[in-house]
Write a structure and sequence with these properties.
By secondary structure, the chain is an alpha+beta fold. The chain contains 10 helices and 7 strands. It has 2 domains: 69 residues, GTP Cyclohydrolase I, Chain A, domain 1 (Orthogonal Bundle); 131 residues, GTP Cyclohydrolase I, domain 2 (2-Layer Sandwich), CATH 3.30.1130.10. It binds zinc ion. Zinc ion binds next to loops.
Length: 220
């Protein structure tokens, strides 16, 4: 049996086009809905929340939300490999841990689309070549600006660095607060979730993991 067409759904629901659009997203050239469709979807969510999208204060909200989404989820259009590059600075002599700690990030959980606010600590053991330090923060940002679980994001950052730089090991720790836990459900405010991923030497040698942890905790 064919799925309902746009027209049929409109007739059945008698509520404009939104019910139909949600069931049957037409797609643009890059496979995405149009700006207009995104704005219509926001109007539906405003109604779902119990408000009136046509009241003055909300008139421009759908356009603002659509624009904000472009920024908040810009990580989908960015490839970490492009940021990390394929050429690296060669270093002679330095082969110890390179750690960038306390990289702040904002993400959104893929379960509720509610913010995850946290910090990432990213380290690697060079294998003769090093990354620009700002690139490590950029990789965190790219994966943060997607819908995420903290576990996935931690592993993605480690994998991206591991596969491009080919260091002796990568260590990533993320500490984050999940607004979906603080604002809804069990409402546990102030609880922090910790996740770690270790590769290479960081994985095989507990002493290297311990050093990474000590360096993160050594504040000030
Ligand atoms: Zn959530």
């Amino acid at each position: 049996m064919a799925s309902p067409t746009l027209t049929e759904v409109n007739v059945q629901k008698g509520r404009g086009t939104m019910d139909a659009i949600i069931k049957n997203f037409p797609v643009g050239d890059d496979g995405r809905p149009t700006q207009k469709e995104a704005e219509d979807a926001v109007r539906v969510l405003l109604r779902w929340a119990g408000d009136d999208p046509s009241r003055e204060g909300l008139i421009d909200t759908p356009a603002r939300v659509a624009k904000a989404y472009k920024e908040l989820f810009s990580g989908y259009t960015q490839d970490p490999e492009d940021v990390l590059g394929r050429t690296f600075e060669e270093v002679a002599g330095y082969d110890d841990i390179v750690l960038v700690k306390d990289i702040p990030f904002y993400s959104h959980c893929e379960h509720h689309m509610v913010p995850i606010i946290g910090r990432a600590h990213v380290a690697y053991l060079p294998n003769g070549r090093v990354l620009g330090l700002s690139k490590m923060a950029r990789v965190v940002e790219i994966f943060g600006r997607r819908l995420q679980t903290q576990e996935t994001m931690t592993a993605q950052i480690a994998t991206a660095i591991d596969e491009t730089l080919r260091p002796r090991g990568v260590a990533v720790m993320i500490e984050a607060e999940h607004m979906c836990m603080a604002m809804r459900g069990i409402q546990k405010q102030g609880s922090t979730t910790l996740t770690t991923t270790f590769t290479g030497t960081f994985k095989s040698e507990p002493a290297e993991q311990a050093r990474f942890m000590t360096m993160i905790r050594g504040r000030g």
